[in-house]
Design goal:
The chain is an alpha/beta fold and about 270 residues long. The protein folds into two domains: about 190 residues, Alpha/Beta hydrolase fold, catalytic domain (Rossmann fold, 3-Layer(aba) Sandwich); about 60 residues, no CATH class. About 45% of the residues lie in helices and about 20% in strands. The model has no long low-confidence stretch (mean pLDDT about 95).
């Protein structure tokens, strides 16, 4: 897999398939391997580009902690360098936040946007569950700072995905999550990590799909409702039985949702 230099860092990038370009943007704690159960099927119809975001696994990091805007700039540079024109952009969790902000800033590089549960908690700051979640991030950061990355990862995963989920993860996945803990700490210390300019979406004339899992914490659906209200060409889909990473737990349902949307946006 090649390393492509953008904005002063080298990012690990993988490309497969042919057709209209689809760029996959992973969330926090993991890397491009999180798309492993769905990428081959997408590549049977589309040209699929996945990558490790800066500071994650196979990609380099900047000397100083990066911001979400750095991730957006990286995504723009990759689309310009590899695709040379607009692409469909698919993001999960914090990768969804990056995809949305990128689309609002660079609509010229976007064909459509599909995001699952972006953690834009700044849209619903008074939600009691959001308040509790944000408070719970503090102990996670303390563990990371104390070089207790495995304990931090366990705490975070069990908070977001559900109690006991950490013990059910395959060892390679747990190793990836632990290895990317420090980058998560940098992400959430960006003062804008939960915020987005909703006004920017009023003029986003691109197809947008927001999804959330029926088994996810309810504050994600509250975030998506706010986003949907402000996005002119958006639709919302609930993925039955799924949680925060449906492309790993319910890949067939996720693929059916993704294919339906991408095919209609072509």
């Amino acid at each position: 897999m090649p390393l492509i230099e953008v904005n002063g860092v080298r990012l690990l990038v993988e490309e497969s398939g042919a057709g209209e370009p689809v760029v996959l943007v992973h969330g926090s704690w993991n890397d491009r391997e999180i798309w492993g159960l769905v990428e081959p099927e997408l590549a049977s119809v589309y040209r699929v580009i996945s990558y490790d975001r800066r500071g994650h696994t196979g990609s380099e990091d900047s000397p100083e902690p990066g911001s979400r805007r750095d991730d957006e700039d990286d995504l723009a540079a990759l689309v310009e360098t590899i695709v040379g024109g607009p692409a469909h952009v698919v993001g999960n969790s914090f990768g969804g936040t990056i995809a949305l902000s990128f689309a609002a800033r660079r609509p010229d590089l976007v064909r459509s946007v599909f995001v699952h549960e972006p953690p834009l908690f700044g849209l619903v700051p008074d939600d009691p569950d959001v308040v509790a979640f944000i408070a719970g991030v503090g102990p996670v950061l303390e563990l990371i700072d104390a070089s207790e990355s495995e304990q931090a990862a366990r705490l975070f995963v069990d908070q977001v995905l559900g109690p006991g989920v950490w013990d059910e993860l395959p060892p390679p996945v747990r190793a990836s999550v632990v290895g990317n803990a420090a980058t998560f700490a940098g992400e959430v210390r960006d003062p804008n990590w939960t915020a987005i300019d909703l006004a920017a979406f009023r003029d986003l004339e691109r197809p947008v799909l927001f999804t959330h899992g029926a088994a996810s914490p309810p504050f994600f659906s509250a975030v998506i409702q706010k986003l949907n209200e402000m996005t002119p060409r958006a639709e919302v889909v609930t993925i039955a039985g799924a949680g925060h990473v449906p492309h790993t737990t319910h890949p067939e349902l996720w693929l059916a949702t993704a294919r339906g949307f991408l095919d209609s946006a072509r």
